[in-house]
């Protein structure tokens, strides 16, 4: 009977086709096709839309069958209505009354509207997630609270058996490689956004860039001990983790090499016992902390962990009924060199008699320790020798650079997960293991109750890639989304259609395209939504999307793609898309976390009290992202920030201790989560102050490297001239571009042609803008005996700070300069001296103020950066009394004193950071400046060429000191203290007529 139905359908199809092709309806096919093609928005680069068939079916139906490209349109109610109205308007009278159906890719187009059918939901109910912070200032009930997301960033460094070497999976091009490039979105931006919204994010790659890795384990008495009583004690639980070898070969699983401990939970504090892990910290810094335990029958869902760190302690409840037998990330924490990092596990619980298990703790990222065997043909072996000595090699790279395949082995996953090829092909293993990893995480949960695994109820999986094609000109490739609805099993979980993956793809892709087009690039292309059988899309048994954001091989794309502003925007768009998808699937109202606050400023309101104020920032792209409250984080001296204080208003008062430097940063919160932090402002009240200095942070810039193009011949990134400014740090830069000729073709990944780049930085973390420079300046100011306050530049330009109240101002300009993003559709940002600031500084100086300014582009930005503005030059000449001599004035990083009437500078030699490093941003192109006008003198020169590096002006009413390099980049605190003392003491000298 089934075969007869198929035959009948085919006959009807043929008859229908014949009827539409009759003489009466000649030309209708072309008209219908043209009408539906016209619905495509201009920015959709989805291929050619065509009409496949136009036919009449039994039951008075008129069916318009379009090709797959038509399904790539972002269908919404309005677009579906337009499609039907358009077709009905062009039908001849005898067809207008037919029941019209427009189909594409096997669906009627209204079925392609995200969330249009409320039955198509992938609902996850999880009351207790795998990790819950105990102290939280906000509860993101409209965010991603109790949600679990599997997220990975493309490829990684891997061993290529056919070439017998470790290598990247993609070419080194445009100063990055996809294996690291996608990390620059996922690690510093996307993952924190999801976490700030309340989600727990799983990663199949190491998420810590710290090169140190410390292991503490119950099998090592030097790193572990227990407390207990005769009646309540820890016992052996069975097989667990042990770090018994430095290098892992073959299929060896470290989580099968040791044991774990267990005991029963209690609600009675008198019966509390604990497990403790300790590890000595080799270098001060931030480290990720992971824990390992075993999930057993009757596991507790609220194991109490405490991490003791430089900022105090942070506590978590861990649901040990899921996630046992692998590394579970708790967070990043600051530790000081020489101290013992300490993690504690208690048996206290809300329920008696549950089982709590203790195994190991991992601190830091470290280097890869999974070794691969060198090809046998390169080894001279004796076939009769039963003990063959094979040669093995590790990557020699930090673990965060490596492919997922190696992390998953180190993290205890079975060989069937991390190596489907059983060790024969690491390339295919890597892209296959990510999908297998998703299912193993979810195995045993309600999603996959019949599969073995870690019992984690995952809400979705998301793969972030950047290989979306190339163009020979400078047009944008744009973004592509991939999902798979299945050719066999077409459902997820409890019969949820896999079509929900298309909804996820559509929502995220739409959000990305809309946000980019609204802000930076109105011609950003939204490409297709491919329903294709990619392994990463096909295998996961949860809603999954693969994103091809842009083409890292395409210069026009990468002019945006290397910019941290673009990375933040895109990551926020992805987070918003994921949030909206999960909220709709689980039927709750969402709210987007706020943007960071601005306009920070500090003031003394008494001898021992200060006031911090700021402004909320509304998001023009998202009406729900309105702040409701704020968290003020405080740091004292060179410590770390505390856990924060929740406030309802945009101000905060605090008592202070004299002679201590206080630093503050602020986040905004709402029911959707917490924003990224603001810049940092600092202050100090000196008990024996000589005066108060107002420090203005005017260094806001984050941007891509300088780029250029010469017609159709050459183009690229000029890192030597200006590396750009990363947000906090950069982990994707591999080395300078060296091939700028557009016509040089790709041959292979070792010879990628146009855009080819070096590899000397690909394992290093590069420092960027920390937004924390008032503290560095403030330390030197207090060392000279002055109190100081600080404010953001926008607080000054909006006249929220009265500069005339302060005898001395220190303006931080760092690497501030006007830059564009991408091809420069929007106005350039980050001008050193915008007109409003010039007016305020001129007024301040004319009223007798003294100003110290330092920055790499204090002159170039006014003389040699885009349109020349004569008023800018006059401001520098006539108010600050310096003039531009040259940009790129030095490469040595050495500054020496120059003969001048100001003896305080006579013996000062300075060395500043001029090469890329992990401690401070580098100054590639400091400014050469000269005095202008009577009373202005050169006080410093660059070491290798005697070009002027600094001037001091003594006038009738005010003094100025201008440096052509940033003060905060001086390498030693001793040199900073000496220079600041010289500047402030020279300001304090009596002004005499010249």
Give a concise summary.
By secondary structure, the chain is of the alpha+beta class.
Description:
The chain is α+β, with helices and mostly antiparallel strands and 994 residues long. It has five domains: 2-112, GMP Synthetase, Chain A, domain 3 (2-Layer Sandwich); 142-207 and 394-585, Aminopeptidase (3-Layer(aba) Sandwich); 213-364, Galactose-binding domain-like (Jelly Rolls), CATH 2.60.120; 591-685, Immunoglobulin-like; 688-728 and 768-786 and 804-994, Rossmann fold, CATH 3.40.50.880. The strands form 14 sheets. A nine-stranded mixed beta sheet has the order 43-38-44-45-52-51-50-47-48, with helices on both faces. A six-stranded antiparallel beta sheet has the order 5-17-16-19-14-11, with no helix packed on it. It is globular, with a radius of gyration of 31 Å. The protein starts with a helix and ends in a 6-residue tail after the last helix.
Largest sheet: 9 strands, mixed
Count of extended strands: 52
Binned strand content: 25-35%
CATH homolog superfamily of the largest domain: Zn-dependent exopeptidases
Shape: globular
What is the level 1 CATH name of the largest domain?
Answer: Alpha Beta
Query: In order across it, which strands form the biggest sheet?
Result: 43-38-44-45-52-51-50-47-48
CATH topology of the largest domain: Aminopeptidase
Oligomer: single chain
Whole-number average pLDDT? 93
